[in-house]
Amino acid sequence: MNLSMLLIPIIGHWEKDNTIFLPLIGSLVFITILTVILSDHVYASSPNSTNNTGMILTPNQIAAGGPLPGNISKILDEIKCVDTEHLQPQNAPWFPSVGSTEAGGSGRAHLYPCIHFEGSFSVPNQVYAYQSPGEYGRSYVLETRGPNEMYVYGGPGTLPGAFISRVEVGSLKETWHTTLENNKVSGNWLMPAAINVLADGSIAVTNGRYLYKVNADNGAIEGTVSLPTGTHPPTDSNYDAMEAFKDGTLVLVTANRAVGCQLQGFEAQLKCPTKAPSFLVAVDPKTLKVLDAVQLPELVPARNTVVEHEGKEYIYLVGWSSLFRYEWNGKNLTPDREWGPVHYLTKGQTPANVAAPMGDWVVMMTNGAAASNVSLSVVAVSQSNSSKIVRINPIPLEPGEPSFIPAMLSVDLPNNRIYVWDFPPGKLAAIDFTQDGKMSLAWTTDQRTTGFMTLIGPTDKRVIVGSNINPRDTPEDIQKNNYTEQIVWRDADTGKILALSDYFSPMTQGVAVAPSYGGIMYDLLSNGHIMALQIKPTSYIVEGQNMTVSKVGDLFSKNMKERVAN
Known about the structure:
Layout: H1 3-7, H2 59-64, H3 75-85, E1 111-112, E2 125-131, E3 139-144, E4 150-154, E5 163-167, E6 174-179, H4 183-186, E7 195-197, E8 203-207, E9 210-214, E10 221-226, E11 237-244, E12 250-256, H5 267-271, E13 279-283, E14 290-295, E15 304-309, E16 312-318, E17 323-328, E18 333-335, E19 356-358, E20 361-365, E21 378-382, E22 389-392, E23 410-412, E24 417-422, E25 427-433, E26 439-446, E27 454-456, E28 463-469, H6 475-479, E29 485-491, E30 497-500, E31 514-515, E32 521-524, E33 530-537, E34 541-542, E35 545-546, H7 549-565
Parallel strand pairs: 1-27
Antiparallel strand pairs: 2-33, 3-4, 4-5, 5-6, 7-8, 8-9, 9-10, 11-12, 12-13, 13-14, 15-16, 16-17, 17-18, 19-20, 20-21, 21-22, 23-24, 24-25, 25-26, 27-28, 28-29, 29-30, 31-32, 32-33, 34-35
């Protein structure tokens, strides 16, 4: 396929400020803006088939000089913290770990309070990096069970198909590899789905219409079920969302492509769009028996969210035009007739991806399912009264500039803070939101990403971590998948940059920087490798003289601004 022809309708012109413009793509669903760039690329090599011979190392990699085990001395404290956090309803269905779920629990806050930022808030920090010696294929999710147990899920939409691998901590070598399906043979539609570690220590992973239970020790598939897909054909349905109620019951919802479409991955949603309604199921995590199933009134293009509110358990579903709520009573899923549906979009906006709970509210950011010429809104809807809605537009658009972010926001209830970002403007914003419904802009800064933001650290030392596309890279670089991307650590309270990695190969589009034990974070690169990142404070000597902390901080801030600009 001619990539330039493919990208003409997606990426517009490049302005003098290097801002990417995206024309309105009405049928584009979820993470399509850059993923489609790679839709024709097939990872032909086998897992760990390369040894990086001749690879040019970046300064971060030279500084590390080898595998990164993390700060092992902190692991015991992290385990104690996890035991406390596991008492929360959103964590109860899952294995107690710093990263056993895709988004920090069934509430999908993208908040990991037990992960320590190993750097300093006041002096410069050194980033150390180590790349996996082998190539896994395009990875989407990395999760942990114990301190030495790490798993990668990826492959859907590329050949030979979806897989799950166990990865050795430190060396990043593969210890087992389980292929779930060859989509060329099956003809099923496969796109990035869901993986979580269940309370019993096994791994639940979805792929197309199938739900698998995988032995985390050896990769053996211990159970599988072909889930019903309602009125839409099974071969054109994909269960790309999986959460759980506190009793462990899994709840999953389908995304759909047009009937008969032969395309894979997100390209199917771009070129074979449909608004066929999604299907919702509840599944016993031990037996994989379907306990209940519901035909939904609308297409749900992205993930679901499970919330406990006032003694009841709900699942929130962001449809193509409305927000819905269903109740789980331990046996059945029923629509809440006294709440919603909520029509939360203003004229010209496109749907949000996911709603996240924040106290008495659920919050969303719009323009996640397609590009819009209207700025995104952060919308909050009261869980107690669905007619109570508040919003703010934190990232205004320049004339002719679109808005599109194929991700969901991150929330921090203890700090009354919401974090949102927008890809074309290249902005990241923090919003203060109190339970009385008041919203205000806390800070905004330049940072361009198509991925998710990860919050780590205790309440009083929160750090927000995400990627930043190199401002020097052009649309032509992006068309050829020849651009670079760095990882940025910021003080979540102020937006101040705490650390910047080197520019590496781009991360897989639409994913998050994954946290793990000992302060290590992982960048899932689109070239199939995994980049481990560790941070430690450092000190500078300028012109042979030791500098005071305040002067070092001033110099560091200046250097960081220059690196972001360049």
